[in-house]
């Protein structure tokens, strides 16, 4: 998120944004972990692992978006803290 976007939103909107980002991050993390676990299990128990390898790559790629979400959460928390300090 850009600094201008954060400054133009109210405290209530920022707190709502944090909740949304946490929910999205949790869902992506959960789905990625389940997908990775299932594909690893299938790779161990089956001989044909070509599909499972592709799904494992998808799980890793999806989980790569999580640090971006946490970075956005950190920026929003910093903005909220600066507003509380100024009040």
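^ structure tokens above, recovered residues below v
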């Amino acid at each position: 998120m850009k600094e201008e976007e954060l400054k133009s939103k109210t405290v209530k909107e920022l707190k709502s944004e944090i909740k949304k980002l946490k929910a999205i991050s949790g869902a992506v993390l959960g789905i990625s972990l389940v997908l990775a676990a299932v594909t690893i299990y299938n790779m161990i128990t089956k001989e044909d692992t070509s599909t499972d390898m592709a799904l494992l790559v998808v799980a890793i790629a999806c989980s790569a978006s999580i640090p971006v979400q946490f970075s956005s959460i950190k920026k929003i928390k910093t903005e909220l803290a600066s507003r509380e300090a100024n009040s």
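The chain has a mean pLDDT of 90.
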